[in-house]
Amino acid sequence: MSVQRLTTTANITHAFWPILYLVWEDQILTQAEHQAISNFLSKQNWISVDERNYILGKLDPTAPPSPAEMRKWKQAIVEAAKDSATLTEASIQLAKGDETIKDNRLAQLQVGLPQLETALGIIGKEAIYNFKLGHSTLTQQYDTTDNFDIAKLTELLDGDQADTINKVKSLLSEPEFEYIDPSNIEEYREQVLRWCHTLADNGLGNAAFPKEFGGGGDMKGYFAIMETLSYHDLSLVIKFGVQFGLWGMSVHSLGTERHHRKYLQDIGTLQLPGCFAMTETGHGSNVKGIETTATYNHAEKTFTIHTPNENARKEYIGNAAVHGEAATVFAKLVINGHDYGVNAFVVPLRNKAKELLPGITIKDCGRKMGLNGVDNGVIYFDNVVIPKENMLDRFASVNEAGEFESPIGSDNRRFFTMLGTLVGGRIGIPRSALAASKSGLAIAIRYGNQRKQFGPEGSVEVPILNYRMHQRRLMPLLAKSYAMHFALQYLTQRFLDRKEEEMQEIEALAAGLKAYTTWHTTATLQECREACGGKGYLSENRIDALKNDTDVYTTFEGDNTVLTQLVAKSRLAEFKKSFSGMNLIGGISYLAGQARTSITEKNPLIKRRTDDEHLLDPQFQLNALRYREEEILSSAGRRIKRLVDEGMDSFDAVNVAQHHLVNVGLAYIERIVLEQFIQQVERTTDEGCRNTLKKLCDLYALITIEQNQGWYLEEDYMDGVKTKAIRKLVNQLCWDIRQDAVLLVNAFNIPGSCLAAPIAFL
Amino acid sequence: MSVQRLTTTANITHAFWPILYLVWEDQILTQAEHQAISNFLSKQNWISVDERNYILGKLDPTAPPSPAEMRKWKQAIVEAAKDSATLTEASIQLAKGDETIKDNRLAQLQVGLPQLETALGIIGKEAIYNFKLGHSTLTQQYDTTDNFDIAKLTELLDGDQADTINKVKSLLSEPEFEYIDPSNIEEYREQVLRWCHTLADNGLGNAAFPKEFGGGGDMKGYFAIMETLSYHDLSLVIKFGVQFGLWGMSVHSLGTERHHRKYLQDIGTLQLPGCFAMTETGHGSNVKGIETTATYNHAEKTFTIHTPNENARKEYIGNAAVHGEAATVFAKLVINGHDYGVNAFVVPLRNKAKELLPGITIKDCGRKMGLNGVDNGVIYFDNVVIPKENMLDRFASVNEAGEFESPIGSDNRRFFTMLGTLVGGRIGIPRSALAASKSGLAIAIRYGNQRKQFGPEGSVEVPILNYRMHQRRLMPLLAKSYAMHFALQYLTQRFLDRKEEEMQEIEALAAGLKAYTTWHTTATLQECREACGGKGYLSENRIDALKNDTDVYTTFEGDNTVLTQLVAKSRLAEFKKSFSGMNLIGGISYLAGQARTSITEKNPLIKRRTDDEHLLDPQFQLNALRYREEEILSSAGRRIKRLVDEGMDSFDAVNVAQHHLVNVGLAYIERIVLEQFIQQVERTTDEGCRNTLKKLCDLYALITIEQNQGWYLEEDYMDGVKTKAIRKLVNQLCWDIRQDAVLLVNAFNIPGSCLAAPIAFL
Q: Which of B24, B414, B538 to mutate to test the interface with A (most CBs of A within 10 A)?
């Protein structure tokens, strides 16, 4: 029997081809592999010397198999693998043509090959898949299913604002609103202004203003408009928000009837474009520190608005660089050399020919990371004189005798009351941000459902949304977006129904949700960009604009880290209120005096419960978030108190706890968001929608817990077995929700012309 | 005694002003506050009825104090607070002018006021700070200190590449390299090309090519050039990298001598601008799946390059839209209808007049999120015929008989060997990314050191870098950037010194560090943007460009999530190799068979050690990272094995573990990074530099542990007391490193004209 013969016709040695192929696949035959095979052969006395030599000959490191030989082996193995369940079966199949094979040689093979496989560390059931070309897997087959009625979910999301939302969507779908190339900033700004005029002409600008001044008297509608516009160009939203929200609402909220009569009609129709000039180069978050002055002249009954130094110039002011004709200017009121704190004044900037008025200098902020359709500018005032009636005097005024007057004695309180009326901005921005996240998710999820990459050997490729990692990246963000939708609806309603005594709570809620949502948007759009790969980087697919335009949302209407600390401080004060009338410091002191309270018992059985029934129970989820909320709040209080007791200046003590305080703010918001989501699930009557929302709510709750798993373990609130079970369940929910994902983003019902990204329409 | 008198002249009732002021400060007098004060007063028989009535009169909710009265109280309290250590002291000071006060009344006050304060929850030592205007705190005073010699640290960072680095820096500082407005894409692309020519003219383009073909033979220098250029416009870096790295190095690495002789000189001088045409619309990460064909015609000795369908067009190809005259095209080699897998071919695209050659269609990719100075294009080939010698035939060729030939038998192995030679791109990209992080940190840290916002009541404002939260945001990123610097140096050196058998390890290292670094860069620049507030959003401050240009780094040279899984799979294979010669599947099987090994003992004493000596011990830090690395590697193996044993298709099983595998890849990289940083600290001789680097290294180690604290607690490797101690130490290190932060970013020695951001030069 020649070696030639062993190679060409069916032969028992062919049963070793699969093993030879596998050991040579990485082109490196290791000592150990060689050893394992020759050891094995030396013990098999049913194999002839020729056969053995043939096999050993194929293991010569200096003469590896050629491409042609490797190819030949593979073809034969693939053929043999078709009806085989394991590598051994395929191997025996390859040997079957050999007429020299006697039953006992076959039996020897049947026993020996698995041993050799084991010695080489091959799992036969697994290895066979390398040769079962075109076999189908669960991962490939998985797909979108119709678990609920999209239209019903859209209805639920839109609620009583459906008419307004649909009106805006249909307007945005007009050809006039087709996107333009943003390269030329001048053209872009003019286009955005034209769009704004169209919106105003359609009665959207003055939606929130009182009816007696030409408005719609519909604050709720205004928020729905802002949000819906955010499916389109975000420069338009911000331009719209500056004009009607900031400029208009500042006149409305800080002024009195004569201001309303004089300005609101023209603002609402965009006849009088204006600005909101609060931030200065030197003072953004710390508004109290602004340095622009408004000096009262009793003889003339005028104020002189002045920029005392470079740092006091107004900066980043939207609508200022080109279009604004007037502004609400925040300045320190000075009477007889006495500083009466920050107040607001209407100051004309340009005439109708758009020429700057005397004493006004405006510079262009130039190119920004995004929002280049908005003309942000820097404003300097050089002793600009305005009449006394231009002071927006709802909360403070100068009386006939030239004296400062206010219904609010405390300067601090007056300042915060004034800012409090502007809280609407902290509702509009997160709602706009959330809409941008929804666009990003719609693009990335629809693309991920179509885009295929990699697959089992020789088989069709898999939609990337079927990969667990891809789901892990996008599904939690989708769940969080739904969660935030309901939380922002809640915030809006609380704001609309507000009573004086709830203002502090509502302000904290708005500040917290603004921070939480805008951070979520930044994270979501980043993930969407990466999830779309190179396609996500092309501007035509819109994640570029969405990401860059919303990036500043974490900064404006208050820097997010400053806002979350505000929430924390308000929470410390709240906590105290529920026990006594002590002030903030008292709150801390009080808390510190308490024994550590456990809102939820740390029950040793519950700590270790890992069953789905428990983990998916809203009560467990909410308890966990509440426990964290209360516990880190009180521990922050105790910590600050201890530091002060040890003699530290309280400013320093609060600084030491700053990181802790940010978490206090976030934990509060997370609890609120979950609470609202749970309530939403409970009141959803349509079964399909409810089941899907329940899954999203569970995912939101569990990723929030998972994110803080270190804390829960540290606190001994959960055991390791439980956090592991939660991680597993999160993965499972991501897998489950993937089936609904396309429908869930379609339920946002974003107009196709707004979404626009080609990759969302493959 | 009239009430009038009580109000105007010094009087014992004035001792209550501080308390009255504090309860009215929020303009809301609660029931509880009113109750506490009147209860108190009713028990103080040393207070007269008039006095009591005066005080109670100030607590009438219907007549709150006026602004003027609040102001008067505050002024008086501020005056009294000057020499007082507590609120009580100041209160007594206010009463002292009253000649009716007898010693016993003073004594009563001294006893009574603290009781009242306590009842109201006021901490006297704390509350006094509200009135100590202009007092100085630790937080305000904290500042940059000179703990080390900047020049010495720069020297250490630059190492033996200092000459090359300084040459590039001085070239970039020439007026010619001043940034231009990127609005006009055409102009921008031409400018970038001109800059590239200048670099080539200065001998930087061909640095890595062999000397015999006009190059510098200095691969190490090439990486230093790429990195240093990245302090400038990143479009330039990418254009440079496409021409000299991708186009040039593909000819160099995949071609043989005749290709080198024919092309390298012209590529290195930019006489022959070219492209690297690998990615197709349908296949990015899964390069093996590309569909472009190169069909061999033996009669003509030619290949026909063809794009069979829209998905097979080459996409995102740099240098293609305008400037490229040729390309290395990756295509499936077809001989006699047989597919021989992916190979590379040189294909001319344009003539010297930049006219497209027959059969070539190129479209412009259009505007991108960033890198708009690079002309990315889409290429279609319509039966383009090229001569046989254009096949880059280092790893495979067609012989004289028209048959496929290769020294590597395994198709898989040949494919990965070919890709392996291109690993340099996965070194250049993270080094470029890291340079961009350094620029971002230099801008944000220098700004944070100058920018002041908020401060103690009535006192100067605080540089925002002194806030703990700001430090928490930036210091870990600074430490991580230093850590990555040394890790990338190590990777570069391993690559330069590579031996054949180390290639798999080096490829995994490069893939992992590419992913880890580019994710770090995205995160860092996002944080820097936010940390700079509105200023960070203005394009003039360059975070815009840095962020948008590098955003795609997480995608190109391989999607980061795909790369980290590659690392994980390579790690599973590695693991096996150290025990036997089994293949990957065998590795998993082997691992699964092992008892769970604990590399480091879970010593109950060590689990609870919280002292600095222990936590700052490199051995503890490294053990913790190693333990995690080994443990999640083997648990991933066990998990996949279990699923396959249960009958799951291995493709599905790997998918189930995908999230886990990403962590396996990252844990490996983190251990390597820490190991290298620790070694760097050990070999640093200058004491100042070593101390600073040690702090950075500690911070890197501890934030990495902190990030995985949930896992360590779950595994019972650490106790809650220990993770808490680590968190505290992280905060402390952030505080400590803040003193060095400005020097640390200055040590990057980024040319001022490159950094350019006005906020970095306040």
A: B538
Q: Which residues of B touch A417 (CB under 8 A)?
A: 27
How many CB pairs (< 8 A) connect A and B? 383
Task: Outline where A451-467 has alpha helix (H).
Answer: none
d(CA B541, CA B600): 47
Shortest Cα distance, chain B CAs vs residue A201, angstroms: 32
Q: What is the C-alpha separation between B418 and B396, in angstroms, rounded?
A: 10
**Averages of pLDDT over each 10 residues, chain B, 762 residues:** 50 89 81 86 87 90 89 92 89 79 78 87 80 85 94 98 98 97 96 98 96 95 98 98 97 97 97 98 93 98 98 98 98 97 98 97 98 98 98 97 94 90 94 98 98 89 96 98 98 95 92 98 98 98 98 95 95 64 47 45 82 97 95 91 87 94 97 98 98 98 98 96 97 98 98 98 94
Render pLDDT for A645-692 as a digit per residue (tens, 0 to 9): 888 988 999 999 999 999 999 999 999 999 999 999 999 999 999 999
Q: Is B121 on the interface with A (CB under 8 A)?
A: yes
- Cβ(A514)–Cβ(A506) under 8 Å? no
Does the CB of B533 have a partner CB in chain A at under 8 Å? yes
Residues 679-708 of A with CB under 8 A from B: none
> Cα–Cα distance between A245 and A238 in angstroms, integer?
9
State how beta strands A384-387 and A377-381 pair: unpaired
Residues 201 through 260 of chain B touching chain A, CB cutoff 8 Å: none
Residues of A in contact with B405 (CB under 8 A): 67
The CA distance from B757 to A554, in Å, is 21
Taking an 8 Å cut-off on Cβ atoms, the answer to whether B590 and A121 are in contact is yes
Task: List B residues 463-482 in contact with A (Cβ-Cβ < 8 A).
Answer: 466-470, 472-473
Extract the runs of DSSP E, i.e. beta strands, from B513-599. none
B422 is written with which tokens?
A: 């291109």
Q: pLDDT at position A163, please?
A: 98
Residue carrying the six token digits 């054949």 = B500
Q: Which residues of A touch B641 (CB under 8 A)?
A: 123
The answer to whether B284 contacts A127, with C-beta atoms less than 8 Å apart, is no
Integer Cα distance of B322 and B272 in angstroms: 13
For an interface test with B, the pick among A469, A524, A527, A572 (most B C-beta atoms closer than 10 Å) comes out as: A469
Strand, helix or coil for residue B98: coil
pLDDT band for position A524 (cuts 50, 70, 90): very high
What local confidence, expressed as pLDDT, does residue A98 receive? 67
Interchain proximity A33–B581, CB inside 8 Å = yes
Q: What is the pLDDT of residue B575?
A: 65
Q: For residue range A403-460, list pLDDT tens digits in order.
A: 999 999 988 889 989 998 889 999 999 999 999 999 999 999 999 999 999 998 888 8
The residue with greater pLDDT, B275 or A141, is: B275
Two structure tokens written together for B164: 């090359």
Question: What is the CATH code for B174-422?
Answer: 2.40.110.10
Question: Does B19 contact A at CB distance below 8 Å?
Answer: no
CATH 1.20.140.10 is right for the domain spanning A426-761: yes
Tens digits of per-residue pLDDT, B680-702? 999 999 999 999 999 999 999 99
Do the beta carbons of residue A161 and residue A220 sit within 8 Å? yes
Using a CB-CB cut-off of 8 Å, the residues of chain A touching B554 are 530
Model pTM above 0.90: yes
User: Which of A284, A340, A652 comes nearest B139 by C-beta?
Assistant: A652
Domain boundary assignment for chain A: 2-133, 174-422, 426-761
Residue B27 contacts A, CB cutoff 8 Å: yes
Q: How many of the other CB atoms lie within 10 Å of CB of B597?
A: 9
Asked if residues A169 and A751 have their Cβ atoms less than 8 Å apart, the reply is: yes
Complex ipTM tops 0.85: yes
